Structure prediction request, 180 residues.
Amino acid sequence: MALLGDRAPATLPEHYRFHRGLRETDPGSQAACTLAGYGELALDGLLEAAGSSDGEIRHDAVFALGLGKTDRAFPVLVGALEDGEGFVREKAAWGLGISDRHPSVRQKAAWALGLIGDDRAVPALVASLDDANDSVRETAAWALGLIGDPSASEALETLTNDPDSGVRSTARWSLVLIEG
Prediction:
């Protein structure tokens, strides 16, 4: 922190914990909150830490990258959806908005993942097909159709019986895209 001098944000951890609704109290997560506020000054180090062999370090780096919401962090967050540690995958999903408490954020996250087309997002999008919100399920189905990974076919087939007609229609459309 001393290396950054007057560029260090004085109240950042409190800002993130209270305004983002975070309840992270362990030292690593508190440090991640602080680092997220440094933006570009900390980004290279966080991107490197996200590739660490230590799961706790990856967790905290992914958490900070999710807080920072920078374009350069997005591919790393998508990649972390396949991490071997569940707690790292959870923070990646949170950082991408897939597990946000607000349905509109979850829907926008699914939409963005579909446009990017990275098949590493397929497991998270398949999980979103079980969302309580119709719009989230429909957008996740749409995203899976754009990505085109056949591993999503079974879950999409189940969605063709969804109570919502928009979800059913989008699931069928996505299956056509995937299966040809």
Summary: Residues 1-23 have pLDDT under 50 and may be disordered. The CA atoms of residues 13 and 34 lie 5 Å apart. The two ends are 55 Å apart (CA to CA).
